[in-house]
Design a protein that fits this description.
This protein is α+β, with helices and mostly antiparallel strands. The longest helix has 12 residues, at 42-53. It has a 4-stranded mixed sheet, covered by helices on one side. The chain has 2 helices and 4 strands. The protein has helices at 15-25, 42-53; strands at 3-8, 32-37, 56-63, 66-72. 31% of the residues lie in helices and 36% in strands.
Length: 74
């Protein structure tokens, strides 16, 4: 399975979602995009992005102020 990573740390809304949208476009269906972000609004933003675009949030965690999301492309 293809897996890509996106470092969106230090970016403010809406940049983490915009960069995730661009990054996931180049991936085949079923691939995983791992996004790291520090914006406090990113958990809600990433979930809304997944819901609206048909992707699955397979994991979401926070460690030391960094949110890590695993998104499976729908």
């Amino acid at each position: 399975m293809e897996k890509a990573e996106l470092d969106a740390t230090g970016l403010k809304c809406p940049l983490p979602v915009l960069k995730a949208r661009k990054a996931i476009k180049s991936l085949p269906p079923g691939a995983i995009l791992v996004v790291r972000a520090t914006d406090p609004g990113s958990p809600a933003d990433m979930q809304a992005f997944c819901d609206s675009q048909g992707h699955d949030m397979t994991a979401s965690e926070e460690a030391d102020g960094v949110f890590i999301f695993e998104i499976r492309k729908g």
